[in-house]
Amino acid sequence: PNTIYAKGAVILGMLRDYLGDSLFFESIRTYGWAHAYSTADTHDLQKAFEQISKRDLDWFFQEFVYQRGAPDVSVAWSKTSKGASIQFTQWQDTLVYRYFRMPLLVRASAGNRVKNVYVWMDSVRQSTALADFGFVPEVVTVNPLGDLLIHLSEP
């Protein structure tokens, strides 16, 4: 996203994916009720999400809200007996940006079988995640919906 507004919308969508609809919308309602007819800032929004979800979301807000940029990641994968081993390599300049940690939706297909699973990319230069699809995939796609704040490439 090239504007602050587009980035904000993408980040809220990512938070919705991560928390699920129920916690996301309850957090939004709580935030709205608590700050109706008053001023509020991003910290207030974070507090509402943390209060309702009972999760520490500081990592998310630090990486995607307060830090500039987005992760630049190359992805490679190999077949396993029931899924795939997925290797993530982050390429951003660590003098400017920290490495990102995030859940990623991964879609696998083989013939008429299709399955989605979430895996975590860790906040290190290289990380590997195992995705259990229950079958050996022919095709693996990271971020198949294209809705995450991430720049993906093949190695």
Walkthrough of the structure:
The chain is of the alpha+beta class. Helix content is 33%, strand content 32%. The chain has four helices and seven strands. The strands form two sheets. It has a four-stranded mixed β-sheet, with no helix packed on it. Strands 4-3-6 form a three-stranded antiparallel β-sheet, with no helix packed on it. Strand 1 and strand 2 form a beta hairpin. Helix 1 packs across helix 2 and helix 2 crosses helix 3. It is globular. The two termini are 23 Å apart.
Helix content: 25-40%
**Rounded mean pLDDT score:** 92
How much β-strand is present in the residues?
Answer: 25-35%
Number of strands: 7
Largest beta sheet: strand ordering: 5-2-1-7
Radius of gyration (Å): 17 Å
**Main sheet makeup:** 4 strands, mixed
Structural class: alpha+beta
| General form | globular
* Count of alpha/pi helices: 4
Keywords:
4 helices; 155 residues; four-stranded mixed sheet; three-stranded antiparallel sheet; alpha+beta; single chain; globular
